[in-house]
Amino acid sequence: MLLFPILFTTVPNQAQTRDADSVNLQRAATAISGGQLPEAETILNSILATSPRDADALNLLGVVRAQQHKTTDAENLFRRALAASPRHIGAHLNLGELYFTTGRLPQALQILSVAYKLAPERADVNLHLAAVYESRGDHAVALDHLQRIARADTNEEYFQLLLKVLLNLKRLDEARALAAQFKDSVSHDPEETAQFAMALAGGGLSDEATDILTQALKQHADSFSLLYTLGVISGERKQFDQAEHYLTEALQANPGDAPTLRALARIARARGELEKALSYLVQARRAAPQSPAVLYDFGVTALRMDLYLDALSPLEQIHGAYPRETKFTYALAAARLRNGENAAAVNLLRSYVGARPDDAAGFYLLGAGLLALKQYGEAQKTLEQSLKLKADADAEYLLGLVQYELGNRAAAIDSLRRVVGVKPDHAGAHTALGTAYREEGKFAEARATLERAVTLDPHDLRAHYQLGLVYARLGDKDASQKMLTRAEELRGEQRKQETVVLKLVEMP
Prior knowledge:
By secondary structure, this protein is mainly alpha-helical. It is built from 28 helices and no strands.
């Protein structure tokens, strides 16, 4: 991603002194700067009609073609300019920039290195070279070129690029000093300030980012970019009240903005206010009905609210548009699993773990789907793979259920013991463990474990029923009847018991 906008040198080569052409070249450069490309093209063609090797005219016409996204024509014109005038710095810079913006870094480095040999002291040459080296991951070399730029020649692009280089090199003290320099320098454009602050926060310097944004707001109180960025950074710092305040003001500055609505939804979701989050996402979906990020967040939030059918539609939409995007495959699989479409979920998850073989969450959810399909042998192998990749109480719990179904009660008891050891409030694990104890004839352990289960989840039908059986076996008929009666009451109001904790992959 570029750290600075696409800039093409448009100043005529001072080595050529023809007065009429110089005036026309300056007119063309002014027209290009003002976005008047047809006017510039007419002027330049008139010069080239009489002077077809005019390097300045060829260079500027290359700029016009580049801004028209005619990259092949632009490249040819810059090369013709260099053939006519091999020391033309502007043409070197423009051709290097063209290569850079089209991803041809070796060619960009080659042509800009020539420009550097011709004019090693020029700030624009060093800035362009630093951008190429940074994109190649050669941050130390990029820093060397940036340090050659005099303070008087610095600009917004310099600050943005130097910050990125310093953060990649982990030179945080120098990054802090740069932030102070940025803050104390002349007034910056709000967009550039927001971008600089976001990079600071991304590098772990959130305090410095917040200071810069707060100061900038004193000059640009209604700037959407500043308000939005402050809101996002505050949210990442879990300062939810401040985040909501800034994001709400940002929304007033730019009503209906989908990213702002999405950011507000994230804040609400972090607070556990799922209905509020969904209301923001309904608005965001209305504003950006094709946005993958909005559709994903809507689907995830609906899933967490058990609105499975509402979740399915947007998740199907983005998976259909981006079938190779694993995050979307996973989310759709989770929705299908929660909606009881177990076979379809398993098919999606097989694809997911094939693409992401090191993701424990994928094997966990696949194991859950296989358990629902009663394919216990494969479920066991899948959950064991999940645990091999990452220890997780929820995966261990499902493994315990699978082992129980396979008749391996000793292994099931061991797994479920580990779960309650790590998550003592896991009601389902207590119920499953108590059931296994009862069937093993360990009634005292079964009683204690199942009593804990009904305390943790007073609506767990199975826990009440199993505890009733244990009380009966221990001779406590009154307690047994009470538990069995309660189990029958719960059966009438019972909804499907959830055994799968969703582990969703968040959008960045």
